[in-house]
Amino acid sequence: MKDEKQISYILNELGEEGFAFSPVSVPIYETSIFSFQSFAEFKQALQCERTAHLYTRGNNPTVEVVEKKLAALEGGEKAKLFAAGVAAIAAATMAFLQSGDHVVCVRDCYSWTTTLFTRYLKRFQVDVTYIEGKTLVEWEAAMRPNTKLFYLESPTTFSFQLQDLRAVAQLAKAHKIKTVIDNSWATPYFQNPIEFGIDLVVHSCSKYISGHSDVVGGVVVGSEADIDHIFATEFLNIGAAPGPFESWLLLRGLRTLAVRLRQHQQNTAEVVNFLADHPQIEAVYYPFHHSHPQYDLAQRQMRGGSGLLSFTLKTRELEEIARFTDALQHIRRAVSWGGYESLIVPAAVVSSQDPERINFVRLHVGLESPELIIDDLAQALDQIG
């Protein structure tokens, strides 16, 4: 576990040495190709694109700084940056699967992860079993002789259920099963799954790593052998490479990751307490609120909580849910999360036909004054009933 001094060094110094003129801000290498001084240098680069600066689709100096920082933050040996989070998820899973394999995946994961498994990989005869994943018994029961990958997301997307990372990792290693986890919610600042034995960590860098809602990106972190395998089998072939400028934006966001997350956590604690006590709220789903059934596990696995949570309204009337949503004056109605702004997504917007989820609302608590967020929620909740 890294202390604040180590984290500060990684965010602000690691990987930034060696640039001409000692720039305070890392240069943007906005180039598609790199040239060589000799035949021998050219030949050597072509023989090992994994390490050479040949073509920005493979490696780029600006991109590499971000990769070094994210690998160090997660406690991995190496990282590979992608053009989107879903590209990172696809590469991290497809690199270790082939026709006839089986995957065990947590049920309430990112929707595009579900799409990858149930639609795309199904075309190649890769089967998937979905489980809640809260107990080790579920993982054991779902395993088959051809199970090659466990996919985790802790906490999960809408219901914020956790998995026991150490226990699942130990089970997987005993059966030579690869483990991949989406760690976007907690970020490397609050949780490091590799420390618990998880093989590969993926992030949507569009979320907290960026922090400004102005760039799309993804990353995979793991051992050098696994990342090199992903580079050779998926990354170069798919071509989902990040641009140098987008990578520079991620680097800019990383500078303030620790400061932003501490504020997100502080604001969210106040908003969660308000919601938990409100008469129009049925339940609040946030791992670091004492009402969460896995509160103790959250305390053991994570050092803190970010700004994303869910709550359920007592009403299940679509008209009232819409009225509550439309009444919000400050909190914006938009997908995604992790930026400085507060956002809301009612589950009914996605599917108003699901009776179990119709009253679910996902809220991202931003960096604004918590009083402003609470006042906005309060006046919108007054529209119900």
TrEMBL record:
<keyword id="KW-0663">Pyridoxal phosphate</keyword>
<dbReference type="GO" id="GO:0016846">
    <property type="term" value="F:carbon-sulfur lyase activity"/>
</dbReference>
<dbReference type="GO" id="GO:0030170">
    <property type="term" value="F:pyridoxal phosphate binding"/>
</dbReference>
<feature type="modified residue" description="N6-(pyridoxal phosphate)lysine">
    <location>
        <position position="207"/>
    </location>
</feature>
<protein>
    <submittedName>
        <fullName>Cystathionine gamma-synthase</fullName>
    </submittedName>
</protein>
<comment type="similarity">
    <text>Belongs to the trans-sulfuration enzymes family.</text>
</comment>
<dbReference type="InterPro" id="IPR000277">
    <property type="entry name" value="Cys/Met-Metab_PyrdxlP-dep_enz"/>
</dbReference>
<dbReference type="Pfam" id="PF01053">
    <property type="entry name" value="Cys_Met_Meta_PP"/>
</dbReference>
<dbReference type="GO" id="GO:0019346">
    <property type="term" value="P:transsulfuration"/>
</dbReference>
<dbReference type="InterPro" id="IPR015421">
    <property type="entry name" value="PyrdxlP-dep_Trfase_major"/>
</dbReference>
<dbReference type="GO" id="GO:0005737">
    <property type="term" value="C:cytoplasm"/>
</dbReference>
<dbReference type="InterPro" id="IPR015424">
    <property type="entry name" value="PyrdxlP-dep_Trfase"/>
</dbReference>
<dbReference type="InterPro" id="IPR015422">
    <property type="entry name" value="PyrdxlP-dep_Trfase_small"/>
</dbReference>
